[in-house]
């Protein structure tokens, strides 16, 4: 074993202990079975604890790819929650937060956040779909279209719950006044991503085997329901311990 492999192994074991400890703090004890939370306040509290924990996480997005959750809080919009990923803020409508302790190793203990659709902001015009083009789409085209449907919309929040086109963030001003001077962005303006089509997110330990395989970034968890994905992970664990 090389020095790098040894250091990685030691860090992974340290992180898995922290993950197990964090789970015990979240639930008051280590659950032996799956837990499902549907109360919004409690869901946000748990996600905040996961994001702020020393146990590093990696969150797989409904639209593919992944980021590390750094916290959660109530949104400025009624009924929505805000997920923080370092410098990225996502708005979702939580439906349920499930925890599944698969197998004996914390490496496979994960959270799943299922979210519901909500209204678009109205900032952008809706694009009409051309049904005639549907017959010419390849399987890859349809797969990409499906993934893109979960990206939601990026908007610029200029005051709590008030949005305008994200393009203003890129040019760093709100246009020009009557004197031709730039109108500055509000001090607390920020870009947020509104995941209005809903979808599922899963959260694994940062150094888990699931996060070391690039193919898992294809949003496969969002193509099946909670129980189906749980069965999928359970089968993987069974194969690994044979």
Question: Can you walk me through this structure?
Answer:
- The chain has 242 residues and is an alpha+beta fold.
- Helices cover 30% and strands 26% of the residues.
- It contains six helices and eleven strands.
- Strands 1, 2, 3, 4, 5, 6, 7, 8, 9, 10 and 11 form an eleven-stranded mixed sheet that branches.
- Strand 4 and strand 5 form a beta hairpin.
- The model has no long low-confidence stretch (mean pLDDT 93).
List keywords for this structure.
26% strand, 6 helices, 242 residues, alpha+beta, 11-stranded mixed β-sheet, single chain, globular
Order of helices and strands: HEHEEEEEEHHEEHEEH
Total strand count, please?
11
Total helices: the number is 6
Q: How far from one another are the termini?
A: 23 Å
Overall body shape: globular
Strand content: 25-35%
Mean pLDDT: 93
- Category from helices, strands and their pairing: alpha+beta
- Helix share, percent: 25-40%
Identify low-pLDDT runs.
none
Largest sheet: 11 strands, mixed
Task: Please tell me how large the radius of gyration is.
Answer: 20 Å
Briefly summarize what is shown:
The chain is α+β, with helices and mostly antiparallel strands and 242 residues long. The chain has six helices and eleven strands. A hairpin with a 6-residue loop joins strand 4 and strand 5.
């Amino acid at each position: 074993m090389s020095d790098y492999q040894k250091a990685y192994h030691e860090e992974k074991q340290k992180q898995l202990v922290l993950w197990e400890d964090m789970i015990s703090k979240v639930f008051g004890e280590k659950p032996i079975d799956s837990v499902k939370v549907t109360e919004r306040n409690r869901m946000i509290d748990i996600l905040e604890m996961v994001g702020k924990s020393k146990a590093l996480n990696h969150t797989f997005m409904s639209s593919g790819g992944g980021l590390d959750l750094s916290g959660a809080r109530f949104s400025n919009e009624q009924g929505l929650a805000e997920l923080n990923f370092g410098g990225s803020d996502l708005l979702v409508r939580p439906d349920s937060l499930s925890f599944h302790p698969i197998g004996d190793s914390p490496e496979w203990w994960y959270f799943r956040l299922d979210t519901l659709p909500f209204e678009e902001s109205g900032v952008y015009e809706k694009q009409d779909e051309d049904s005639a083009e549907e017959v010419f789409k390849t399987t890859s085209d349809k797969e990409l279209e499906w993934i893109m449907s979960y990206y939601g919309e990026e908007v610029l929040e200029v005051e709590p719950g008030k949005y305008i086109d994200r393009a203003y963030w890129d040019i760093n001003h709100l246009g020009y006044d009557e004197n031709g001077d730039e109108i500055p962005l509000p001090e607390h303006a920020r870009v947020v991503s509104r995941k209005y089509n809903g979808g599922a997110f899963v959260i694994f330990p940062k150094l888990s085997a699931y996060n070391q395989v690039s193919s898992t970034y294809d949003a496969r968890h969002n193509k099946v329901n909670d129980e189906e994905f749980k069965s999928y992970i359970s089968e993987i664990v069974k194969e690994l311990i044979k």
